[in-house]
Amino acid sequence: MVMIRWMIPCMTLVCLLGVAGQAAAIDPPCDAYPQAKQARCVTIWKELNKEDGTAIAQFGLDQLKRREEGKINAQQHLAENMAYIKQSTEKRIARLKERMVKE
Questions:
Q1: Are 96 and 44 in contact (CB under 8 A)?
Q2: Among 63, 86, 93, 101, which residue's CB has the most CB atoms within a 10 Å radius?
């Protein structure tokens, strides 16, 4: 039981980091730009994901701590993670658009 208690938060952290990494690999925000600008968009998108990596990891660690302390349950943990991922991605997309305008 103790092992399972540790596995779920750790898997959540891995998923959070994986989402950021997958976003860099897939690059869906760059599909909206003309072919000539897509390579630069991909570069900027990867930079943004690297910039936010520390914050994403810290969020995951904070969630793990709150979960271990019994302050949130599994459903709350998942819901907060999904909300954080959505908000974080929206912010990165906004920053991407700002940087692409400058290009």
A1: yes
A2: 63
